[in-house]
């Protein structure tokens, strides 16, 4: 049986759930599909940090500033407690090169209205008393960041969408597409074919695998496998979430197969420490953790927090994250296949979710959007063979 919708969303992570919510709210008859459960991939693996400073500073500035305004009213909009808390973030700085890179970022962030402050090693320990400042020059502090519960956010989007008619199909991989006179027409699944005027790919790291069925490959889009782990709960509290400044020294290209570890540490509201991240660019979707990843993460965290030496690790996990070479999302209509849209590979994904859902809905219902998406169009680096 072929069922008809106005819009079909593929992927039920952070991005797909927001897109499904906004489309359903706008009155479009919408369905969402995921090959696994809700939040089956990167969106079940993350720390829920509401990052705003980790942006590409050329084209992404208007997007993140607009996203911030939409995010500010999200709890009211969804009428849902998202576990929001303001934490602030710290990037501890180890060497002169990192200091130089981050002091330039401090200036640029301040100029666009994102609070950012270089702090001395002494100030660092005032902000985060558990940190060992011995080998640190200082840090870059962002007072305006925070954290939420990822599952509450995704659950809120999908529940509110369901209340206005969203149809959901989980454990239902999309395996192919039909076109009619060059325009997207339907998707293939084990539950049958489903047709829609608009189909939106919110498929994260899996996007190139899926658009291969349409003869498309977006060369700009790669993916990394990111690994993390969680400890037993701790009575002491971290005041911030922290990530090593060495991330900004790395540049965009991670050599394939090379395992990198950047210290990232957050504490959940229940006291568990979330430790990350090691990552490597991959050409497969295995979600097992390479044997050397967990010791790397542990070492990178203990360098800053030797007091955590005796903590027990409860479990570790891995997930594939879309990683575009140019740091820009793939976001907007696919020019070679009318009716097909893509929204994937965002940095600072949590804060961007409401704006992405709103923008896709505007594009589908009006053909234009308040946000200028020119720099993010997927065709910026495409090979089309059909
Ligand atoms: C350890 C770790 C910590 C992180 N911490 C943070 C953080 O604190 N803050 C932050 O903003 N970001 C963080 N991230 C990044 C963040 O998790 C991702 O950017 C985000 O989850 C991407 O969401 P998405 O919806 O685009 O993709 P995904 O969550 O990957 O969703 C894509 C969905 O598409 C589905 N899919 C794919 N192909 C098909 C198909 N053929 N048919 C049907 N369904 C399909 C998948 O099953 C998946 O559910 C972290 C990542 C990791 C790994």
Primary descriptors:
31% strand, FAD/NAD(P)-binding domain, 2 domains, 386 residues, 8-stranded mixed beta sheet, alpha+beta, binds flavin-adenine dinucleotide, D-Amino Acid Oxidase, Chain A, domain 2
Instruction: Report strand %.
Output: 25-35%
Radius of gyration: 21 Å
CATH topology of the largest domain: FAD/NAD(P)-binding domain
Run of helices and strands = EHEEHHEEHEHEEHEEEEHEEEEEHEEEHE
Shape: globular
| CATH architecture verdict of the largest domain | 3-Layer(bba) Sandwich
Please identify the structural class as seen in this structure.
Answer: alpha+beta
Number of strands: 21
The poorly predicted ranges are: 382-386
Helix content: 25-40%
Question: Which ligands are bound?
Answer: flavin-adenine dinucleotide
Q: Major sheet: size, sense and barrel closure? A: 8 strands, mixed
How many individual helices?
Answer: 9
Q: How many discrete domains?
A: 2
CATH homologous superfamily of the largest domain - what is it? FAD/NAD(P)-binding domain
In round numbers, the mean pLDDT is 92
CATH top level label of the largest domain: Alpha Beta
Distance between the termini: 28 Å
């Amino acid at each position: 049986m072929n069922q008809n919708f106005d819009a079909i969303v593929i992927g039920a992570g952070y991005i797909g759930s927001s897109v499904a919510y906004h489309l359903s709210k706008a009155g479009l008859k919408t369905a969402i599909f995921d090959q696994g459960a809700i939040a089956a991939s990167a969106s079940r693996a993350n720390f829920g940090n509401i990052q705003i400073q980790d942006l590409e500073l050329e084209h992404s500035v208007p997007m993140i500033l607009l996203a911030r305004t939409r995010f500010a009213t999200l709890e009211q909009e969804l009428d849902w407690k998202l576990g929001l808390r303001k934490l602030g973030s710290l990037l501890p700085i180890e060497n002169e090169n990192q200091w130089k890179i981050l002091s330039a970022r401090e200036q640029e962030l301040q100029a666009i209205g994102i609070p950012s402050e270089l702090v001395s090693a002494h100030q660092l320990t005032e902000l985060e008393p558990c940190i060992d400042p011995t080998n640190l020059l200082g840090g870059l502090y962002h007072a305006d960041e925070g954290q939420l519960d990822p599952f509450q956010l995704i659950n809120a989007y999908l529940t509110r969408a369901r209340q206005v008619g969203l149809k959901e199909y989980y454990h239902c991989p999309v395996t192919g597409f039909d076109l009619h006179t060059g325009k997207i027409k339907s998707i293939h699944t084990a539950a049958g074919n489903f047709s829609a005027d608009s189909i939106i790919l919110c498929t994260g790291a899996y996007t190139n695998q899926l658009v291969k069925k349409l003869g498309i490959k977006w060369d700009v889009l790669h993916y990394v496998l990111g690994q993390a782990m969680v400890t037993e709960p701790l009575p002491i509290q971290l005041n911030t979430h922290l990530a090593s400044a060495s991330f900004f020294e790395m540049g965009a290209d991670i050599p394939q197969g090379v395992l990198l570890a950047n210290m990232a540490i957050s504490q959940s509201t229940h006291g568990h420490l979330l430790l990350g991240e090691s990552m490597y660019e991959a050409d497969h979707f295995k979600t097992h953790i390479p044997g050397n990843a967990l010791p790397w993460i542990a070492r990178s965290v203990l360098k800053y927090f030797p007091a955590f030496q005796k903590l027990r690790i409860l479990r570790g996990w891995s997930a594939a994250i879309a990683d575009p070479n140019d740091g820009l999302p793939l976001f907007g209509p696919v020019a070679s296949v009318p009716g097909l849209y893509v929204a994937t590979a965002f940095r600072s994904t949590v804060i961007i979710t409401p704006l992405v859902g709103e923008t896709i809905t505007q594009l589908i219902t009006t053909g234009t959007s308040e946000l200028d998406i020119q720099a993010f169009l997927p065709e910026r680096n495409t090979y089309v063979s059909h």
